[in-house]
Design goal:
Blueprint lengths: L1 H19 L5 H7 L5 E6 L16 H18 L3 E4 L9 H10 L4 E5 L14 E4 L6 H16 L4 E4 L3 H4 L5 E5 L6 H7 L2 H23 L3
Parallel strand pairs: 1-2, 1-3, 3-6, 4-5
Antiparallel strand pairs: 4-6
The structure holds zinc ion.
Zinc ion binds next to loops.
Length: 218
């Protein structure tokens, strides 16, 4: 399957990148922005820790992992060094997740979650969390929030929050909750692998924009 999947991934990323970049900057965008970048993807929860549970039983831990695996495939094609805090349905402590990012001196630590709220099935909006104000964490959170706001057309929230994984990360770190899986329509949407792939592409566009922005010194 790998031999079939990789060219498909390449073509999809290639065509998406074209649509997001002008023709003059395309080559630089696609080939150079992520070269040598160490990106740690952290799909939240796993094993006995299911995370949120959707109205008909979709588990947050499962979709967090699916999006992270799709995103890892895209980023590898684009030249990044990608590490996952978990690549299967296993429990990993928060300390171990942070240690991986810190020990690798990651350029970006991306904690990937899906939101849930009891008694408010209509709510579905992106939220982006950061803690440190002494690095580019806030910038990264803003860029991911904008990417998901553009994708959904719904205004979300940028929140400074003392989450453990953000507080103890010694590298730029964000925790993103793009959707509320407690919304029944969104839960159904997330059950389609095509939409998991779309979510990964929105993350990818955010990552490209983030590294382009910091390399321009702005
Ligand atoms: Zn979560």
């Amino acid at each position: 399957m790998k031999k079939i999947i990789v060219p498909v991934i390449f073509l999809v990323v290639f065509s998406i990148s074209i649509s997001f970049a002008s023709s003059t900057t395309f080559t630089a965008t696609f080939m150079n922005v992520l070269a040598g970048k160490v990106i740690v993807l952290d799909p939240g929860h796993g094993g006995e820790d299911t995370g949120a549970i959707g109205p008909t039983g979709l588990l947050e831990k499962t979709i967090n992992l699916q999006v992270a695996l799709d995103l890892a495939s895209i980023l590898k094609v684009q030249g990044a060094s990608v590490y996952l805090t978990r690549a299967t349905d296993v429990y990993v402590s928060l300390q171990a997740r942070i240690a991986l990012a810190n020990n690798l001196h990651a350029d970006l630590f991306l904690c990937m979650h899906h939101n849930s709220i009891e008694g408010a099935p209509d709510i579905d909006r992106p939220q982006a969390f950061y803690w440190s104000t002494t690095d580019t964490s806030e910038l990264a959170a803003k860029i991911f929030l904008e990417a998901f706001e553009n994708f959904t057309g719904v205004q979300g929230d940028l929140i400074q929050e003392e989450y453990y994984v953000l507080q103890y990360a010694q590298v730029p770190a964000v925790l993103i909750e793009p959707f509320f899986m407690s919304n029944p329509a969104r839960e159904k949407w997330l059950e389609n692998p095509v939409n998991i792939w779309k979510e990964a592409l929105v993350y990818d566009n955010g990552i490209l924009k983030y590294f382009k922005t910091i390399s321009n010194g702005s």
